[in-house]
Design goal:
By secondary structure, this protein is an alpha+beta fold. Helices cover 28% and strands 12% of the residues.
Length: 417
């Protein structure tokens, strides 16, 4: 992006005005709004296209693109496209800080919810995200839609149109809720606070809610006895996973119900020096050790100090039960860990960079390609194939080939030395 995605530009001169119009329309339906709505609209200009443009208000690209609409795309229907999952960390209201104990919410084209182990999983069809529920029953007497007008009805109905794709991306990337980094309200986010139109649209929002991705809690009244921290909260407050220490979206794939054999984990965290030091994946491992998370097994991960001293932050490493015991032990998934590190171009730009030169963008592509191919290594594609098929070969009762064994010998983490 040679132009900032957080500022109006020659190509998008009315971006802030359009975002303000979207926020005002959404607020008029009674739905909660915040800085994240503006951020989501800005992302929409660059990352989404309208399949059904909103004719009710001038609101810009992506304003009417719903995440559930992916269900109807031909490639998705034919299983020729990936299955997208957008993650957000849930802020525990009243807590002084965000930690790995915070619940993680996932949005897919089909559902929204959390796999919090103690609650057995809480989910709602994503089309009805924004509906007011109580104890699992629809309790709102107002039909509201963010892509239409308000209708007041005499019986409870469901809200539709809340699950805007760009808004969910904004919740997932919501760094505005990180007080240590950029402050706790919109006044600290100049790209948004400089817009009179946006700040006017957000004028009635209390400061303590300005930096949350605000979603009506569909699980109100549920899970209180099993430890769901938002059971009594009218709203969920959604943030970037990095706020809770988990930058890498691994958690959905740790669920036994998904039966994942191998995860290819790309870590682009901005630790000291703006390169990863293993902290994010170590935090996910720490989360798996918490009481109640026994159903989400995860390989042993060393702490960042060892990660750096052993050079694990500058090369691929495989983590998993099959690495530290006899071949065939698949009690945890195999994690193929690929950190971002310098191969041929610097890629340690600050998280808060809003634009990139064409040269810098090309450098990211070149460096990423270098990492993905291990600089054209002849054996790396073979080893990657071995990692992907190892668990299935075990189920077939086949022994690991000598070629694959050499790959596991080279890349497996077998414990701190």
């Amino acid at each position: 992006m040679s132009e900032s995605y957080l500022q109006p530009s020659a190509n998008h001169p009315t971006m802030d005005v359009d975002a303000a119009a979207s926020i005002a329309q959404k607020a008029a339906t009674g739905a909660p709004v915040s800085v994240v709505d503006a951020y989501g609209r800005f992302l929409g200009y660059h990352l989404t296209n309208d399949s059904q443009p909103d004719t009710n208000v001038k609101s810009g690209p992506g304003a009417a693109t719903l995440f559930s609409s992916i269900q109807e795309t031909p490639l998705f229907k034919s299983r020729a496209a990936p299955f997208p999952i957008i993650l957000s960390t849930g802020r525990v209201l009243g807590n002084a800080s965000d930690t790995i104990a915070n619940p993680i919410y996932e949005s897919t084209p089909y559902h929204f919810g959390t796999n919090l182990p103690s609650s057995g999983g809480l989910f709602v069809p994503i089309e009805y995200l924004g509906t007011t529920f109580s104890n699992g029953q629809v309790s709102s007497a107002k039909q509201v839609s963010t892509v239409g007008s308000v209708q007041t009805l005499s019986s409870p109905v469901c809200m539709t149109g809340f699950e805007n794709a760009a808004f969910l991306m904004g919740c997932s990337g919501n760094i505005f809720g990180a007080p240590v980094q950029i402050g706790v309200n919109a006044a600290n986010v100049s790209a948004i606070s400089d817009s009179k139109e946006i700040m006017t649209a957000l004028g009635a929002v209390p400061d303590e809610k300005l930096d949350n991705g605000r979603v009506v809690n569909p699980f109100l009244g549920l899970g209180a006895s099993t430890g769901f921290p938002a059971a009594n909260d009218a709203e969920l407050a959604l943030l970037d996973g990095g706020n809770g220490g988990e930058n890498i979206p691994i958690f959905p794939f740790m669920q036994k119900s998904r039966a994942v054999d191998v995860m290819i984990v790309v870590d682009a965290s901005a630790n000291p020096g703006n390169y990863p030091n293993g902290k994010a994946i170590f935090n996910t491992y720490q989360k798996s050790l918490q009481p109640g998370y026994e159903t989400t097994p995860f390989p042993t991960i060393p702490p960042p100090s060892y990660f750096v001293s052993a050079g694990l932050n500058k090369r691929p490493t495989w983590f998993g039960s099959t690495c530290v015991s006899q071949p065939g032990n698949v009690s945890t998934p195999l994690v193929v860990y690929l950190p971002n590190y310098f191969v041929n171009s610097p890629t340690n730009t600050s998280t808060f960079a809003g634009s990139y030169t064409p040269e810098s963008t090309q450098g990211y592509f070149n460096n990423g390609f270098g990492i993905a191919t291990q600089n054209g290594s002849a054996t790396w594609p073979i080893c990657l194939a071995c990692s992907m098929t190892d668990a299935q070969q075990t189920r077939y009762g086949n022994e690991r080939s000598s070629q694959c064994q050499s790959c596991f010998d080279e890349y497996c983490f077998v414990g701190q030395k």
